[in-house]
Amino acid sequence: MAAGIFAVRRDAGGIAVASGLAALILGTLAAVAWQARGLSALQIWDWRAVWFTIWQAALSAALSAILAVPVARALARRRFPGRRALVTLLGAPFILPVIVAIMGLIAVFGRTGAINETLRAIGLGEFSVYGWQGVILAHVFFNLPLSVRLILQGWQSIPVERFRLAESLGFAPADMSRHLERPMLRAVLPGVCLAVFLVCLTSFTVALALGGGPSATTVELAIYQAFRFDFDLGRAAALGLVQIALSLAALLMARHIVAPAAFGAGLDLDRGPAAPRGFHRLADAIAITLATLFLLWPIGAVAVQGLPRIPALPADVWAAALRSIVMALLSALLAAGLCLTLALTIARSNKSWLEAAGMLPLVASPLVLGTGLFILLRGHLSTDDLALPVTVLINAVMALPFGLRALIPAAQTLRADYGRLAESLNMTGMARLRLLTLPRLAAPLGFSSGLAAALAMGDLGVITLFATDQPTLPLKLYQLMNSYRMADASACAVLLMAISFALFWLFDRGGRLA
Amino acid sequence: MLKPTVLTLALLTATSAAAQEKPVLTVYAGDYIASEWGPGPQIEEGFESFCECDLKFVTGDILPRILMEGEKTEADIVFGLNTDVTARARASGLFAPHGQDVSNLSLPVAWQDDIFLPYNWGETAFIYDDTRLENPPASFEELLAAPDDLKIVLQDPRSSISGLALLLWVKAIYGDDAAQAWERLAPKVLTVTKGWSESYGMFTEGEADMVLSYTTSPAYHIAAEDDQSKHAAIFPEGHYFMAELAAQLASTDQPELAQSFMDWILTPDFQKTIPLANWSLPAKLDQDAWPEVMRNLPRPEKTLFYSEDEAEELRKPALDEWLQAFSR
């Protein structure tokens, strides 16, 4: 009895966070539906959008995960100068603001991009980046880094001692793969696929810009239209519900195929598994080179275009940059706190609804979320004052699922490996947090906060709905474009990208140094 | 704990002191209008020079926000609504008459609205670069008959106002045959973007031969970049009219200020700021007073326009036709 009460009290933080999340996301949806006095029926085009959304997200998830495996393996077992920097740098696309990513992809894969120039020069046909293939390309570009990162963490969670043991037993690469790598992949890949699937589910600007037209419509566009053009809140709520149902279905499916991999604790030797030689060495080199080219070339292309004009950017842009940085830092701190609380509780109690609640923000439409909050809070607070705090909150919440994906496995491992030791030492509360939890989880926590900061930096969704006299940097970027100042806009894009990346790097690096 | 409280108090008293000094006129405006590259700063400076007030621009999605806030809105004025979506705004009953004489506006269409006051206007057009496209289509019909490797970028009518204008433009020219027109146009459409800015960026990057924009777009390139290569393809079938509108809210707590702002909009003082900041044509200004670059732009001979009721009625069926043609 007493033990039961004790467990509930210890789980209270996580349960509160998860309930808060569920209440926020489902509550805002309910508020929108209530304001609309019910849900509206979906039209034929909405169902087509649902179908397109599902298959492109599934294909993007499968491709990202499959392509990430050789890259992550190569990065896990090879040591070379600049490897750490490369791992961090490869994460860049995931945190790129959508508009910047589109610029970069078009600079490389567009009709006048380098790839097509080359294809034409050697007499081959053009590759069109417009159409469903463009959507998939962009989604792989965005999500390959996330996948590599998550799978790499999986690889690193196998203690080096295991690889050494395998080596001393004379394991060939194939045996190594069967006994160590495949069980790890079986544990990690469903989560990776799920995360990418959910990200692609809510994609909107990218799908439109590179999709070639209305056949590449996602549910999120339909929500946008319902809000902005039809002001049909009932339809927006119905679509928001469809989006959440899709994600819950995906979540349930993923749960059935996840098998935890138990490798036990090691001594944290950062030497990496002994790498097979010969042909494997070449294959790894190719995997790393191709991934680097694919992920960094578009970013380089944008940088080359925009860098020279950065000094000429007007003062307003810098003020907006500062405002965005402060908001991003607040979002990151909030996200880190929520994420840690939730992940520790999930690791301890294994309640599946907690994890589901943690994943909910991925599929909640920021538009539904923002509008719902707006409806709930108006009358209590001035909407002007709400714009910035609400944006900070929503950004923190939107980044949670990614942080959780990185933190939950680490928290589970921590609990499995050191939980009993800590309990036998009667180590609880702040002491346990300071001496055991934070040091052991610093790396994934730094990564999560970095992601949250960077994603908040590039977000444009909510703030335009709330309206403000204090624009953020992404808003400035659009204002420049809308005033025809495309060259300044590309400089602004580089600035945005540089800040997002610097924030991510600082947190991520900080986490790994701790 | 003390410090933040003191700071907050200081800030609060500072703002309320300022508010006591000068009344605030809150203007909800489209995103780009209030940016320092739009007409906003000049409008703010101009009005504050005589109003004894503080004009505050609040930018964002105007219409959804106003509809959500209803009568509790803090807005005194909305600035930047578009002609094709006013039916819903009017139906909300939130707006008050502007009280201006609109009989002699410099618009190509007759304007009789007593609530929504146009401050600028333009027409939809496809923009091309003569260094890349030497023989642009000379009519809408020629555009539809052009080879499929002529690539154009459009905006989605479900997410952008210019995309919606294109729907109505095609409807105005082709009427019941609009569906066939879309089917002929579809193979030439490189891609469709969420908003105007993404499209125009793709065009200036050289990705597409033509982009859906406005007849006044070349003026920016000429005036600000000294680039003479961008032109609007002028079609004899006519071009679709678009104007941006201002209106005052009936619920305003500053009725006199709001009225004096509305009174100011059609004055030459205000109108002169429009062409080179908004890159569109002024709603009431003699042509001799336009900047040279705007005067010299080729103008379509025929202007097409739907009343807001027609536009509202046509929107859904026209959208269905468009979706149908593009999903083949």
TrEMBL record, chain A:
| Transmembrane annotation, as ranges | 12-34, 54-75, 87-110, 130-152, 187-213, 233-254, 285-304, 324-347, 359-380, 386-408, 441-467, 487-507
Where does the signal peptide begin and end?
Answer: none
A GO CC annotation recorded here is: plasma membrane
Q: Which PROSITE patterns match?
A: ABC_TM1
* Example GO BP: transmembrane transport
Q: Where in the cell is it found?
A: Cell membrane
Q: Which UniProt keywords apply?
A: Cell membrane, Membrane, Transmembrane, Transmembrane helix, Transport
This protein is called what? Thiamine transport system permease protein
Using the record's annotation, list all stretches that form the ABC transmembrane type-1 domain: 50-254, 321-507
Which organism encodes this protein?
A: Paracoccus seriniphilus
Which SUPFAM superfamilies does this entry report, sorted A to Z? MetI-like (SSF161098)
Q: Does the keyword Transport apply?
A: yes
Q: Which InterPro entries match?
A: MetI-like, MetI-like_sf
Q: Does the keyword Transmembrane helix apply?
A: yes
Automatic annotation (TrEMBL), chain B:
| GO cellular component: a single term | outer membrane-bounded periplasmic space
One GO term in the molecular function aspect is: thiamine binding
- UniProt KW RNA-binding keyword: no
Where is the protein situated, by its record's location annotation? Periplasm
Q: Where is the signal peptide?
A: 1-19
Protein's GO biological process = thiamine transport
Q: Can you name this protein?
A: Thiamine transport system substrate-binding protein
Taxonomic source organism:
Paracoccus seriniphilus
Q: Species lineage, top-down?
A: Bacteria, Pseudomonadati, Pseudomonadota, Alphaproteobacteria, Rhodobacterales
